[in-house]
Structures are given as C-alpha cells and as structure tokens.
Fold Taste receptor type 1 member 3.
Amino acid sequence: MASSECVIISPFQLNGFHWFQAMKFAIEEINNSSTLLPGVTLGYDIQDTCLKSSIAIQSAISFLTVKDENRFELKCDYTNYSTRVLASLGPSNSELSKVIARLFSFLLIPQISYAASSNLFNDRTNFPSFYRTVPTDEVQAAAMVSMVKTFQWNWMAVIGTDNMYGRRGIEHFTKLASGTGICIAYEELIPLNLPGSKFHRKMVSVIKNIIYSRVNITAVFADEHYAQTLMTIILEQNVTGKVWIASEAWVTSETVASSPNISSIGTILGVAIKSGHIPGFECYKSAALALRDLPSLKSKRCGSEGKLLKEECNECLTQSVDEDTDGDSEELQRISFNVYAAVYTVAHALHCLLRCNLGNCSRSTIYPWQVSLV
C-alpha cells in the first residue's frame, strides 16, 4: 500500500516487542560466544503476522523460497533444497502455529513455538517438524484439576473462548475432572466473532447461567483480552464472592488485576508456567526501550484489515513504546524466557550438525530437515 493517506493502525503490541528483544539478545550472545557455534554468525528475519492467518501464510511462504533468491522451486526431491531460513520461531498462539506448521512440515523446516500449547501438535505424523518450549494444554488442565481437588471442590463451571485454546482447554479439563469425582454443572464457549452488543448480551447470558447453576467455582480458559471483558461484565452484574480459576494466559495479567473493584468478585486462583532468569537481559531491554526512534519497528505495520502497510504518514509515527514500560508483567518474563530457550535450542542443533568444537566448525552446508532430526 503506497498512499499519503493516514490509515488507522492497530495498537502497538508491547509483548511482541519484548519477545523480539529476547530473540535478538540470545542471537547476539551466541554470535559473541567462542564455544557455541564458533566462527558462525546467526542472522534473522522477523515478520509481523498481524495475528492474521493470511499474513502469517505470506511470511511462511517467503521463508520457503530458495536461499538468496525470491522464488520457490517445484522439485520431486527436496533433500538438497536450501531455503531462506534453517528454522523458524513462533507464532505465539496455536491457531496461527497450526496454519504455518502445515507449510513448514512439507520441507521439514523446524518450527519452535514459545507459546503454542495445544496438544494437537503432539501428533508427529501431521506435525513432524514442530517443537516448543512451553508445556501443553493438558499439563495446564491437570494442574488446574489438581488445584480443585486440593480444595475438595466438586461442583463447578468451566468456560473458554471459542478457539483452539479455549476448546482444547475445556476438553482436557472436563475429561480429567470427570475421573476425579468433580461435577461440571455448566460448560460454555465464548464466541469471538459477535459484534459488540451481541457479544455483551452473550457474556451476560453466560454469567447468569453460572449463577443459575449455583456454582461458586468457575474455570476460565481465555486470553487476557477476553478475561478482562469477562471480569468487567461480572462486576457490572454485581456478582461477588465466587472463585475463578484462571488459565495460564491471564492468571498474572496486570490489566485484569488493575480493573476497578476487581477484589469484589471474590478469589482468582490459577497456574502459570515456571520461568527462568536471563542474565543481562533486563539491562539490554532497557537500552532498547530507551531509544526514541525505532525505524525497524515502524517499517511495516498492520492496518485495521490485517494488511501490511508499506508506508506510513507522519501522524502514524508518533506512537511510542515508552508509555507502556513501567514494568514487565510475569507473563512477558515467562514467554521471553521461552523465546530465549528456543533460540538456544536451534543453536545447539546447528552446533552438532556443523561439527563444531572449541575452535571452529568443520561442516559448512546443512539443510532444514537435518536440523529437525537432531
């Protein structure tokens, strides 16, 4: 798109910026290392999916093109086919990861996700080159059921968003709960494509059904945005004194925690992925956030229709990350560590394939499918 007209762009996603910094930090660490991949310099190409499958597919296809060229070759045998990338990290959710995994599996390009938790990817026949640095939904559901058992609750509701994350979460939770004597009195999916007024009416209906079912415990599988919307409507309906069990996606959300009068709804419990410490990362990230001019982040942005904008007008360039950097949420830290671990996973695979020792690497040519098999 090339126009002087200012197009409304989607809000800046600070979490993506943090995860990008974690990837960049890990790559720079490895490139400066004398022991891991000595003499080898890793590069990267970062693409914005705009959280749209159509955009994600465009990026994935570009990664499948011939190395150093802009074309894809049709061949009977891709054993010696060199693509632009040897591995791919992401995307951040299971829906998009599934779309891209179908393409990458064709050439066995390793895809390492740092946040896609669906058990669907355990199927090595359909997803032979998919890996991750995050536990599966089943592990999360088992932890939530264990929490319910600990408090000896046996009458509850479970709701979730109508996408892969919510559906699989409910499926695993109800299956595990049924085997432990826990009765699921009410179960519901939250639709994602309803217009504003209809969505609000649906959410009110869900909350009223929870009240009608006389349950005091409700498990919620949703991302931060829909969890916040749910909590807001719960407050509007003056529902108090209940227990809400949060899934990993929103359990440590500062946005939800800072909602006005949130304490009046009762108690929020949940489970979260164990994080790890990245030495030096906080200082590195602070330096990046201190930069007022971020041209690399502004060269491609997402329009309201999920289209990449090739050019931007001056009015659109005033957006800054500074106003959102008061402190990192627990979720940002956890996922950043997962990204960091994913980069090192690829690096160690390459170290093995390139036959590296303490001084150098003796092999120069490898292919993506070989990285998947390490």
In short: The chain has two domains: 14-134+281-373, 137-270. The CA atoms of residues 211 and 226 lie 19 Å apart. The two ends are 42 Å apart (CA to CA).
